[in-house]
Structure formats: structure tokens, C-alpha cells
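Aim 2, interim progress. The first record below pairs a target sequence with its C-alpha cells.
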Amino acid sequence: MEETFGIAELAREFDVTTRTIRFYEDKGLISPARKGQRRIYHPRDRVRLKLIMRGKRLGFSLEEIHEMIDLYDVDPSEVAQLRHFLQKIRERKNALSQQQMDIAAILEELKTLETQCSKLLKEKSPS
């Protein structure tokens, strides 16, 4: 018999709230079986939740994560999914590299302004 999971069990495992898991369900990212009001999560749902959490940690949007996960359903060989994921990884790396350069430039500008302000303050403060 296939192992199943409850929502609280998955919430503890992935350190998220049950509300978060229900949100992902509402967005169509996971679709547990139902037994009355109770949600029954199968290993497939657990894997999808793991992929969602990894995608969020890497900064992908829920839409991007949804696209990547859905590709697996279309192509179980994972080739299309891996190609798409590789493209998304490259795009994310490029965006982060640009942000890193932008942050470095802003930090340099703040350093210059800090030096100028400190110098002006010394000149204007009575000794």
C-alpha cells in the first residue's frame, strides 16, 4: 500500500503552515485526494511540494514553478522539464548577477556620500 501523508505532517516536514500548503493547492500546484474533509497527500504531492519549496528558495515565481512542475506531467522522461529548468536557472543567475552589480554600485555611492557627509559635519561642528 502506498504511503500517504496528512497536511500537518507535510507542514512540519517542510517547515511551512498548513495554510501555505492549502494556498499551493488553490493555485493548482498540488492536488491531494480527499476523504471527506480530510486531504490525503501521496508521494507525488510530497515531491511536488519539495519542488515548490526549492523553487521558492531559488527565487522563482509560483507561475514559473507551476510551468516546470507541469512539464513533468507532459514528459515523464524529464527531458523537457530539465531543459526548461536549465533555461530558468540561467535567467535567474543573470538577474542575480545584475542585482549584485547594482548593489555593489549603490554601496559604493553610499560610501562616498557617507564620507562627504562626515567631512561636512566635521567642518560645520564647533570644535
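The second target in this work package is listed in the same format:
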Amino acid sequence: MRLLRRVLILLVAIAGGVTFSQAPELAQQYRQRLGGAIDELTTIIQNFDEQANHNGLERQAALNIYAVSPEQFLRSQGDSMRQAFDRNEDLSDQLLHLTSASPILRPLIIARSPDAATLANAWRDFVPGVPVSVAGLVWAMLGAVVGLMVAVILVVVLRAIAVIGGRSRGRATPRVATSAGRQVFSEPYPKARH
């Protein structure tokens, strides 16, 4: 039983290490997708600005025309462009934070405020990498420690459940003895003689 417990703890620690070691790789793939999303938004924004300038308008003036239009379609287009500007700013800020942070901290920056669409796409197409970087090794060690703690807690809880379950079964179940082919139920504890 003790050997099985040690093997279980070791396997959970290894699984935690392997899982956490992929955090920097996921952060890298997320960062690449973030850059792609920013490039696409930048193209859309540049096209909008060029069309506005071609018609003698600044960006805000063009957005105001959309906002006061009697056509719902044009108002919706204006709202979409405002969202594109806001999203481009948010993603650019996050990319700046990611680029300036050390590779070890990048997964934490993403976890703090991820872009849901970018993270979902990065996770969908995620390809695990071998953690040969310092960041990968640090996250692998962190994962092994977390896995070790989870395994130890699990073993302690299971042991406590087994001890409690053993005690309650010992009290509730009377002893059964067989005598000449028939069962005789006796008290859990022998009666004292007078």
C-alpha cells in the first residue's frame, strides 16, 4: 500500500510538472495570435482612416456621422468600428506588457486579463512544446510542486476516509458466528460475568 501511495504521488507530481511546463509555450502561441489579431485590426482601422481622410474627415468626425445616421445599419457599422478601435488598443496594451515581461511571468499576465477569442483560438490549435527554455523548466518545477501537494492532500483525505469508514463499520456490525450450520448473532462486545 505504501509503494502504491508513493507511485501515485510521483505520477501526480510528474503530471503536474508536464502540464505546467507547457504554460510558456501556450503564452508564446497566444502572443503570436495576439500579434496577428492586432495586424488585422490595424488594417481595418487604416482603411477606415484612409476613407475618412479621402472624404475630408477625421476619424472622430466620421464616427459621429455613423452615430447620427437615421439608418440602423450605419449606426451599427459605427459601433463596430468603435469596438475595433477599443479592442485594438486593449490588445496592443496586452502585447506590450507581454513583450516587456520575462518569459516566466507571461503566463500570469495572460491569466490576469486574457482576450477570450484569442485565448480560445490559441488553445484550440495549441501544439505542446518541449520545455527547453528556463521559463519552461521553472513552470515544470512549479507544476511538479503543485502536483506533489495535490497528491499528498489526496492521500491524506483518502486515508482519513478509510480510517473513519473502518471505525464506523466496526461499531455498527455485530459479530457473526456459525454453530452447527446456523448463524448466531452476538453482541459487539462480550458481556461481563457476575
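The first strand starts at residue 176 and ends at 179. This observation will shape the mutagenesis plan for the next reporting period.
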